[in-house]
Amino acid sequence: MLILVAPAASPKFANFEPSSIVPEKAPGLARQGTPEQMIVSAIDAIRSGQMNNARATVDALLKKEPNYRLAHLLSADLYAMRAMPLERIGGGVSAPADRLEDLRREALVRNQRETAPPPVDKLPAPLLILSPKQKYVVLVDAGSSRIYVYENEQGMPRYVTDYYATIGKFGMGKQTEGDQRTPLGVYFVTSHMPRAQMDKTMGEKAALFGIGAWPISYPNEWDKREGRTGHGIWLHGVPYDTYARAPWASNGCVALTNPEMLEVANYLQIGVTPVVIVPRIEWLATDSWRARHQEAMQAVEDWRTAWEKLNTRRYLDEYSPRFVSEDGSNFDKWASQKTGVNAGKQWAKVKLDDLSLFVTGTDDKRMWVTTFDQDYRSNNLNNHMRKRMYWEHDGRGWKIVWEGTANSG
Length: 409
Hints:
Helix content: 25-40%
Largest sheet: 6 strands, mixed
Structural class: alpha+beta
Shape: elongated
């Protein structure tokens, strides 16, 4: 919660509560930048007692985005502060407590972005191997209500831009249908639903999604293995009568302002673009990122080589005892079947193309998600498939816990 206490000498917002302290910036005249920069500039000006600057910034912002509710709230506070100091944002209005808390939380997360911007000199740990076909990757930091776009620059992620985003009303970590949480994992954009199409198929309900929606592939293969349910997780806009929604307000989707959703749409390739959703982003120096990238490449190559050389012992050692195959077989049953198959091979060739590897999960339980085109040839079988693997670290190394046909991406 954003608490801004006013000293007696000047009717202004002064400080965040201790748990939310961030560095102050020098306030200036109304900044004609993004709406986010302008709202933060207005708050800075209020904290520093520069009310004329704050009023000019808020007025300019409302002219630019007349449906921006947080800007209207600051405007009302500025009028109220002519008569008395206020203890917090929204202290000058009478409104439902939950609505005010939503707007205070929005002010906080937007302010955190401006005072502690993403370290563009570092690389995001979740994006370790990018396929040549993936021109861009969408990375969602659910914990800070932020969505990032990275470009694939010769296999390395290069920062392009980032935006404020709304996630599920009850946070992250979707488990069941209707829990109003945003899933964590690796997904892919599967289609585009223009607003005109949604109006025809959904009627009045289409208004919630603003300019349209871009569905993603929840539930993925791992979600299904873990028994997670639900559907209809999308990237989408917001109703036309508001500029932005609260940080936690969706039914589980990731929502952006309509202008920003249109900008993100320029980076989306249907059926190709990954959407990686994590609780928080770990940032790595370039050398550290390269080391993890190489570790991932080597793990995949060790698996491929063991299979190609028909070294069944080494091949099976790449799999976790927790492994479950696509058809539901446990490790023992599957290993027995693989041992029998390999015994009948005289030679094998395994070629992998279009490989990607992304990292999701929490710090204490990370997961690798690999996707690639697999071309398998042997003396008695030729097979080509789009494959996906999920890996977990067992303390000794990365082990495969699921593999099968990639249903998307």
